[in-house]
């Protein structure tokens, strides 16, 4: 169950990161409120995952899911550029996540 919690926490992190962007520096109330709600949910699920998973693995994978997801949202929803170096960078992050998962005994 810990991996399910961790995956869900990562997805919620992507949502709150997008809402943070949509809040325009916390000047728009609904995106700001949504961001706080999704942030609390993300942290709550992360804490449940950390009951079983090692800190380093759980935190790195949570932030990695958020980083890769935010990259995808930026590229495919917000129209941010997909340059070869950016793609290489996100590929390295994904590779690191796979190695961490394979190295986990849980």
Automatic annotation (TrEMBL):
Pfam families: Multi_Drug_Res (PF00893). It comes from the Bacteria. Coiled coil: none annotated. It is a multi-pass membrane protein. It is found in: Cell membrane. It comes from Brevundimonas nasdae. Belongs to the drug/metabolite transporter (DMT) superfamily. Small multidrug resistance (SMR) (TC 2.A.7.1) family. Gdx/SugE subfamily. Keywords: Cell membrane, Membrane, Transmembrane, Transmembrane helix, Transport. PANTHER family: GUANIDINIUM EXPORTER, SMR FAMILY PROTON-DEPENDENT DRUG EFFLUX TRANSPORTER SUGE. The chain crosses the membrane at residues 33-50, 57-79, 85-103. This is Guanidinium exporter. Its main location: membrane.
């Amino acid at each position: 169950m810990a991996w399910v919690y961790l995956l869900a926490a990562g997805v919620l992190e992507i949502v709150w990161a997008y809402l943070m962007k949509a809040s325009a520096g916390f000047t728009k109330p609904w995106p700001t409120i949504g961001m706080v709600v999704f942030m609390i949910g993300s942290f709550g699920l992360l804490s449940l995952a950390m009951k079983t998973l090692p800190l380093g693995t759980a935190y790195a994978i949570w932030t990695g899911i958020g980083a890769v997801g935010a990259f995808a949202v930026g590229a495919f929803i917000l129209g941010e550029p997909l340059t070869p170096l950016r793609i290489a960078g996100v590929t390295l992050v994904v590779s690191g996540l796979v190695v961490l998962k394979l190295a986990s005994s849980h």
